Amino acid sequence: MTDIRKVVLAYSGGLDTSVILRWLEDQYQCEVVTFTADIGQGEEVEPARAKAQTLGVKEIYIEDLREEFVRDYVYPMFRANTIYEGEYLLGTSIARPLIAKRLIEIAAETGADAVSHGATGKGNDQVRFELGAYALNPDIKIIAPWREWDLNSRETLLAYAAEQGVPVEQKRKGGSPYSMDANLLHISYEGGPLEDPWTEAETDMWRWTVAPADGPDEPEYIVLGFEQGDAATLDGEPLSPAEMLAELNKRGSRHGIGRLDIVENRYVGMKSRGCYETPGGSILLKAHRAVESLTLDRELAHLKDELMPKYASLIYNGYWWSPERLALQKLIDETQKNVTGEVRLCLFKGNIHVAGRRSSEHSLFNEAIATFEDDGGAYDQKDAEGFIKLNALRLRIGAQAGTKK
């Protein structure tokens, strides 16, 4: 890729991407454009501008993508009740297609020949960034320094930074030993003591949530209102998607909701242990399923549950922009047209309990039929006899055949 003149780099301002910035200039003799996305990571992104300017970058993009992130990525994913391998709410995975999209758009705006990222060659993120980039621009060139250079430790990165005059903030004494990633949906922890799956996560590792046992001694009730599958109101107050998730994070965090410790299967083939805090997402998932329980036809709900693991794998593995994910999304969105109603939730000591659900327009729950009292003839219980015998027919035939052997 000797013809590369300009590269758009996904830039955080930290050690890795600052070294990558200088390395790209050194190895490729190219101009670097930096792109820093605010997707709710809870840290100031503006310092990245000053850092990039210090390193001589002329074109610097810093963008607030929080609303787009939740509206166009998190909410569509939650319409499917998406979890990976039965537990993970895909907080890191769902952020990558948005970043990939903006990398490609900025490359087009600036006339760049390539994009670059700081994901390592062992992880899923390299796959997610690059599959997304190629889906949106099949001719784009991608530079993944961790797959090219020999700077494979913090010490070698620091040495290269010193040699190249890259200013680096030294890690504070007693700083976190974990590799962390955060956005409005979650914060994740990997590495350090977690590399032994038998070792319990340290209590001071968790940054967002209180320990469930230390939560308030009184439960908190909230009411979430949904419109066509998306959370729209909290306790009667309309909130934008980003506002909603931020507020649910606050409510859930103080009750110790959303902690997770799992060993997951990475797309590149290895198992990896990770810990996650997803307080708002955990509340959203519980509430969404509750309103669907009233408003979705039985077979439609079951079909969604059957498709969800496939949909989750597509997101986890980086196929957000694939034709199969886009097709599945159309089906999922079609199922959500009547998923409108309210759910009352009780938050207490790390738990979320559904205390009530209602839908004035679209509820399929018929109290006259479901009652254990006199239903006035709404349901003829004698009809069940023929229904049972017809469904038992194959079982009876099989049993009779078995007695002849």
Question: Outline of this structure?
Answer:
This protein has 405 residues and is an alpha/beta fold.
What's the total number of strands? 14
Radius of gyration: 25 Å
Q: What count of structural domains?
A: 3
Q: Please tell me the CATH architecture of the largest domain by its name.
A: Alpha-Beta Complex
Distance between the termini: 72 Å
Q: For this structure, what is the CATH class of the largest domain?
A: Alpha Beta
Strand arrangement within the widest β-sheet reads 3-2-1-4-5
The portion of residues forming beta strands comes to 15-25%
Order of helices and strands: EHEHEHHEHEHEEEEEHEEHHHEEHH
Going by CATH, the homologous superfamily of the largest domain would be Argininosuccinate synthetase, chain A, domain 2
Folded structure, characterized:
The structure is a single chain. The protein is α/β, with parallel strands linked by helices and 405 residues long. It folds into three domains: 6-68 and 91-164, Rossmann fold (3-Layer(aba) Sandwich); 179-358, Argininosuccinate synthetase, chain A, domain 2 (Alpha-Beta Complex), CATH 3.90.1260.10; 368-397, no CATH class. 40% of the residues lie in helices and 19% in strands. It is built from twelve helices and 14 strands. The chain has helices at 15-28, 47-54, 66-79, 96-110, 125-136, 154-164, 241-254, 279-295, 298-316, 323-335, 367-370, 383-403, and strands spanning 6-10, 31-38, 60-64, 114-116, 141-143, 179-182, 187-190, 220-227, 230-234, 237-238, 259-265, 271-277, 341-348, 351-358. The strands form three sheets. It has a five-stranded parallel sheet, sandwiched between helices. A five-stranded antiparallel sheet has the order 10-9-8-13-14. A hairpin with a 2-residue loop joins strand 8 and strand 9 (230-234). Helix 1 (15-28) crosses helix 6 (154-164). The protein is elongated and about 85 Å long. 36% of the residues are buried.
